[in-house]
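Re: beginner question about structure tokens

> Can someone show what the tokenized structure looks like for a real chain? I only ever see the sequence side.

Sure, here's an example I had lying around. Input first:
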Amino acid sequence: MRPMLRLYWRLTFFCSLLMVAPILLIRTRQYDDRGIRQLLQTDGCPTPCFLGIRPGITTAPEAITLLRESQWVRPETIAYVEWDKGGGAVWTWDKQASPLLGSRQSSFISSRRNGVQVVDILHVTTLVASGDAFLTLGTTAYTATGDTGLYNQVYVAWFYPDQGISIWSNMNCPTYNDHLWMRPIIVQFRLSISRSERTNLQGARC
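And the corresponding structure tokens:
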């Protein structure tokens, strides 16, 4: 009986070690958000800034040139349209782009100021989980939820007025916190960001 008991305890210890070891390994690894910071906070370029494009400052022609010169962008996919009061462009990312960028098109919106089109808003699709972006940018009192216009879907947004950045994530109803932090985000760069209402992020409007 005793040999069987010893074997049982050895097997129990071995199984427990197999379960605990990965957890300890994960907890001892240092969190690396350099890729996310490179995406959200461009070095040497005052925020808000992305690929050298600064909303409120960079003109639309300058932005198109920066996009064409970027190794991240497929230049043949850049399409720009201009009208009396504004304009806009869309483009697709190249294979050399950051792996954190999404496959969907990104875009910018411009408005005419003193006869010149100036970039107002940059929309960048990403594969960054909302929880990782939240850890990198920190807490904010300015958040919002609302309907996307699609059936059974809402958006959740975090606003960082001092950095000119907001992050958006679409969620299916019902919304749960564990799903919320894993959803990929769209990043919006804008010189002036409206400070929206607070919400408890508990699946409001679902």
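Each token stands for a local structural state, so reading them left to right follows the chain. Residues 40 and 50 are 7 Å apart (CA to CA).
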